[in-house]
Design a protein that fits this description.
The structure is a homohexamer. By secondary structure, the first copy, chain A, is α+β, with helices and mostly antiparallel strands. Chain A has helices spanning about 40-45, 55-70, 70-75, 115-130, and strands at about 25-35, 50, 55, 85-95, 95-110, 140-150, 155. Chain A contains four helices and seven strands, in the order βαββααββαββ. The interface between B and F is small, with 8 and 8 residues. β6 (about 140-150) of chain A pairs antiparallel with β6 (about 140-150) of chain B, so a sheet runs across the interface. Chains A, B, C, D, E, F: It is an enzyme of class 4 (lyase). Chains A, B, C, D, E, F: It catalyses: (8S)-3',8-cyclo-7,8-dihydroguanosine 5'-triphosphate = cyclic pyranopterin phosphate + diphosphate. Chains A, B, C, D, E, F: Pathway: Cofactor biosynthesis; molybdopterin biosynthesis.
Chain lengths: ~160, ~160, ~160, ~160, ~160, ~160
Amino acid sequence: MAAEFSHLDSQNQPGMVDVGAKNSTTREAKAQSIVYLGADLIQHFEAAGWQNKKGSILQTAIIAGTMAAKRTGDLIPLCHPLGLDACTFDMDVQAEEIIITCTCRLHAKTGVEMEALVGASVAALTIYDMCKSVSKGLVIRETKLLSKSGGKSDFQA
Amino acid sequence: MAAEFSHLDSQNQPGMVDVGAKNSTTREAKAQSIVYLGADLIQHFEAAGWQNKKGSILQTAIIAGTMAAKRTGDLIPLCHPLGLDACTFDMDVQAEEIIITCTCRLHAKTGVEMEALVGASVAALTIYDMCKSVSKGLVIRETKLLSKSGGKSDFQA
Amino acid sequence: MAAEFSHLDSQNQPGMVDVGAKNSTTREAKAQSIVYLGADLIQHFEAAGWQNKKGSILQTAIIAGTMAAKRTGDLIPLCHPLGLDACTFDMDVQAEEIIITCTCRLHAKTGVEMEALVGASVAALTIYDMCKSVSKGLVIRETKLLSKSGGKSDFQA
Amino acid sequence: MAAEFSHLDSQNQPGMVDVGAKNSTTREAKAQSIVYLGADLIQHFEAAGWQNKKGSILQTAIIAGTMAAKRTGDLIPLCHPLGLDACTFDMDVQAEEIIITCTCRLHAKTGVEMEALVGASVAALTIYDMCKSVSKGLVIRETKLLSKSGGKSDFQA
Amino acid sequence: MAAEFSHLDSQNQPGMVDVGAKNSTTREAKAQSIVYLGADLIQHFEAAGWQNKKGSILQTAIIAGTMAAKRTGDLIPLCHPLGLDACTFDMDVQAEEIIITCTCRLHAKTGVEMEALVGASVAALTIYDMCKSVSKGLVIRETKLLSKSGGKSDFQA
Amino acid sequence: MAAEFSHLDSQNQPGMVDVGAKNSTTREAKAQSIVYLGADLIQHFEAAGWQNKKGSILQTAIIAGTMAAKRTGDLIPLCHPLGLDACTFDMDVQAEEIIITCTCRLHAKTGVEMEALVGASVAALTIYDMCKSVSKGLVIRETKLLSKSGGKSDFQA
């Protein structure tokens, strides 16, 4: 950890990391965000086919998450502007919560962890938006990276 | 809760809620997001004045969160496009985590909960981005609404 | 028609129309876009519940159209940047085509025709995108304003 | 056509198509959008050098279309975020209508049909915006793909 | 000047100024940006009707400036997200330079100086982009506020 | 200079330059923008550690400039949409002014001059925004390209 600080800019000014000299490889990252709704709300929405007055909750969340993942470089100040070869979502409805998994993939010089995290987070926020009129007890919890591969060091949570 | 479902569109299609008939009032919402870094990392960054090689971690997060809060209607599909009269952040550094609080205020026909939640979430994701090269153990947890006022029903967590 | 040309800027330079002196009234506009798919394709998608490998065709189109309507001032150079109180879609599936109707409403100094037209057009383009791998014969036709009210002169197609 | 449905996601959830395994080739797409103005309006604008009180109609439309084509991945939910090597417009003024042709080109793993269609559509919407104060009879018709090359299967309308 | 520093946030963290308690008034701001091209280049473009291989230089600059002025809150981190009632440009071609004046107007709680400055700057950058293949000696100079009115204190340069 | 005009489009319509046939090389561009604050203001902010009531002036400017450089293709109509491998800023505080230098780098078919110029300009505008409540005498001057390399012809101011 300490080694990192030797890279400190002498002026301590913010700046994008230079990735010009890195090789392009196939990068993949998988991130998770969990939205707690509570057992009552989950049962209600299951019964309604995950529809509410604003529309299809899960599908709207996936679309919002996909669109946000594509705009990661626009939201996170020091992320590189990247494309995406693939961005997919898995929505796992549990007894009290929904587990959102977002997987991003790209052949690039830098990783797509932030893309996966932004995708999962905005999908979670969209579920929050679509359910908030029905309950005040919603909580988004455990947004984290599950795995990444293709870079200097792979990672598996 | 059940009452809500009587509003279901006959086609179950998504759609923005019509707020045309609502009165403009001063709306405020406060949301929180907690980023877990662990005691070691917190101590390291405290020692470095919350600077790393990408720059000032907390200030970058606040700016990113503010800019994202302003673009909430662009990120969350069925949110109304709104302005903001104020958007402020409080960063409370604890022993193992940072508690981000984002407060948004606007005189409008609908609430600014999502603006506060988006602001807190993107600030949290920016901290994640700026610390991820140093540790793989970061987790964003407990993103939730703390309070809202000015609408049909006030709320306090 | 001719009267309009007396307003020509002496330099013929582009410019937003000044709406500062206009009164805010409740403006509504309804626009339509028709996507021709052909009878075979309509039957196939009906059988599949309007799902394809990219997901739910109609819902994705409605979400894309809503998000684009909110960004009209960002897309059409001389449109005023406006909010929206409401934006709703109706998707009418006919034997050979889908008739998309987008209705926008806002209390403002200028009309929301372009918002409704952009919403309907981007919904149509999204249907095109989601069906283009299955057929090359798609055509978007008859994008037009159906009605507008609340301004200097109401209109009904 | 039927073969396509074997790709249906088991959950019927929306998702970007994975293009990671595809080869980069030079892709070109040409799309067309026709704006009907009517003979009287065409003559008026011809006489005025295609200027109105908002400025130069055709040039503004081309710029708007170019800027929108660049943002296709931002507007169409499941389009890949792509760059563009070239984006050009041809504006063919006929007796009663303007035929807009937008040509996009890129060396990429997936095609640029949607870029060309978005470019042509937003150029058409911009003409609509700039002429709508003069006539209520405007219609955008026949937005379609004219040709594409460089992918798995070429196409010529 | 010194009085200002009493407002310093105790944590020195960035934040939007709260304008919630301010009155809405009609705000106007006028800003200027000057692009130096040199006498030779000015004469060449005058002879060519301000057209180059990328198109009409002045019109493209005005459209770009207008679109950027509308997005000021998106570009400048702590600016409030505002609409605009009017945004107009004047392009004054001198012997060696072009003087761009951008005027913005809005009924709002805060001023539109930054909108006018962003509009003038992006128009200047667009002229730079459209002329840079012909000369390396371009300089954008003297971007400044000319006047503002409607707020706490009017200003005239 | 004259040779350039032989490329004039026969219709004088705007259009992106086609870069499809160009080779990808490592492009670098360095641009400068100077913000004049005056000796009094510079001393005040030096004494306050470049903090004002909106936060850290220099850091906010760098972040805004970085985010704007990433969106150059979105702001300048005929710029190609590009990524960025690196974007760094140097803030040189002089007796009466701040000299902002923005350096951008990318392996691409076309240069990144506009990215560097947009980055420096938006950083300058952000300093203006953060200091404008304290002084009306601010001027952004001398925004220009310092150097570029990697393209057909290198340049050094």
